[in-house]
Amino acid sequence: MARQPTMADIAARAGVSRVAVSYALNGRPGVSDEVRERIVRIAREVGFSANGPAQALHGTVVRAVGLTMRRPSAAFHIEVFRRELISGVQAELMTRGIGLALQFVDSLDAELEVYRRWGADRRVSGVLLCDLVADDPRVDLMAALDLPAVVVGGPVSGPRLSSVWNDDAAAVTESVLYLAALGHRRITRVGGPAEMLHTRQRNEAFLAACAQAGAHGLVLASDYTGEAGAQATRRILSAREQRPTAICYDNDVMAVAGLAVAAEMGLAVPADLSIVAYEDSPLCQVVHPPLTVLRRDIVAYGAHAARLLFDLIAGLPARSVLDHVATLAVRESTSPAPA
């Protein structure tokens, strides 16, 4: 199947920028009449589709934004980050009359195939990418498909690839230094999948902060589920000689599971063990004791990602944007380390 002409192709032939092509084809001010006529003529010559992605933002055609999740759909109902991220994206899309194409997949190959199908059919105007890994093949695929994309996480950049990210390192460092100030010198982190870039960033920041505070830090990888969080906690707390006095979990679900395991093993929280969760949720607030958390506005984070994607689709330059830093909300699951 022949590749459909893009605004980049028209820009190259006309000797103008992609932004100028977007302005000309969508009837926006910012280009001269002579340039506009040349761009429109070239668009007709190359067979550029009049219902291209850029026009979706101006009401000509209803388009969708694509988002895939490489997790079982059942996890959506319990994991606060994915649920609130989608809520923020959807809220921004609704204000523009654009739909969300949400696809759950079980492997990277399946996810790549979804993007190829979306690109071939022009079913979406752009996509949001989550959970980037090192040398992520999705980045090159977006360029090959000429599909605007925003990475939720980063920072990363590319010709039509923007990113919006939180400073995970600063947030994790704050939590470790807080625990160290309470006297904790053996701290364990139960992180997400080790191959994810944001997991690596958090792990590195955690170990560096432990070294800075003179504490012994240990990192275990998990998968964000309650079952895996419980298994990791049992393994950690079974090592009585080097058992930590504090555990930091990478999400709310694993932290709540860890709290239950501590009670099962006869440890009192926070007298014997302090617990910190990355991400806040109603779960963290209704358990006993309520959990100390690293809290951020995930709904606003999702909306920010959607706005960056609209800018890309409109032909504006790609950019990497720092959203905000999660802040520590201290509750009753943390206290001074036991003697």
Please tell me about this protein's structure:
The protein has helices at 7-14, 18-25, 33-46, 80-94, 108-121, 137-145, 168-181, 197-213, 226-238, 252-264, 282-286, 298-313; strands at 64-69, 99-104, 124-130, 149-152, 161-165, 186-191, 216-221, 246-249, 274-278, 292-295, 320-322, 327-329. α2 (18-25) crosses α3 (33-46) and α7 (168-181) packs parallel to α8 (197-213). Among the domains are: 7-50, 434 Repressor (Amino-terminal Domain) (Orthogonal Bundle), CATH 1.10.260.40; 168-295, Response regulator (Rossmann fold), CATH 3.40.50. It is elongated, with a radius of gyration of 23 Å. It contains 12 helices and 12 strands. The chain is of the alpha/beta class and 339 residues long.
Any key phrases for this structure?
alpha/beta; 12 helices; Rossmann fold; 339 residues; 12 strands
Proportion in β-strands: 15-25%
CATH class of the domain at 168-295: Alpha Beta
DSSP helix fraction: 40-55%
Silhouette: elongated
Query: Quick check: average pLDDT?
Result: 88
CATH architecture of the domain at 168-295: 3-Layer(aba) Sandwich
Task: Output the helix-strand order.
Answer: HHHEHEHEHEEHEHEHEHEHEHEE
Low-confidence stretches: 50-62
Instruction: Kindly identify the CATH topology of the domain at 168-295.
Output: Rossmann fold
Please identify the structural class as seen in this structure: alpha/beta
Number of strands: 12
What Rg is obtained from the alpha carbons, in whole angstroms? 23 Å
What's the story with the biggest beta sheet? 6 strands, parallel
CATH superfamily annotation of the domain at 168-295: Response regulator
